[in-house]
Fold:
Amino acid sequence: MVLEALHAQADEESLFALIAEGLEQWGYIVLPKGLPRHLIDCLQTLHQRERERFYAAGVGRGSGQSQNQMLRRDKISWIEETDTFAEPWIAWTTSLQRYLNRSLYLGLFSFESHLAVYEPGDFYKTHLDAFRGQSNRRLSLVTYLNDEWSEEQGGELVIYRPGADECLTKVKPELGTLVLFLSEEFPHEVLPAKSQRLSVAGWFRINGSSTTLVDPPS
Ligand code: OGA
Ligand code: MN
Structure:
């Protein structure tokens, strides 16, 4: 369900309430201009710093470069919880996690996220972020940092109806658009971008620990 940008001025509580309602009713929600301003600033700073590092290091980035070039072509960099520049982002996702646990009993336990850069021609083919029983990712969150984005630039995130080929929505990767969906339910893909496309993707996880496995690993 795509909500209008009515909530541009929404306080944190009302924004979280909208997200909870969307997830409860439809399992996914798209909020244009949903990301609060201070988080846009925070994530843009992280992206900027990452790109400087990237250019300083020359071509290729080893571990950041994805393994499976057929499936995905983006370059990623994980956001470290201990990074002081990431503090506002970590604080906000922690509050959201707490809110969703209280309102929807999702039992979310931790959050991980990465910056992603799609260069022209890059894509991410249809995939699920989690397979039932094989992953502890429950809720996916994606947001974008592209100041201007026109139709011709492509790079839309397409979300499909669970178990069907039907497109539920096509999201333009515009600055501040927030997308959340249940990780195990919604297949999605990123269409080839025609210009550089910056995004941040994150996952709320449940605690998959058992007596024989400590998860997430410390
Ligand atoms: C992902 C993903 C979507 C996007 O990284 O798993 O689906 O729009 N990203 O960048
Ligand atoms: Mn994904």
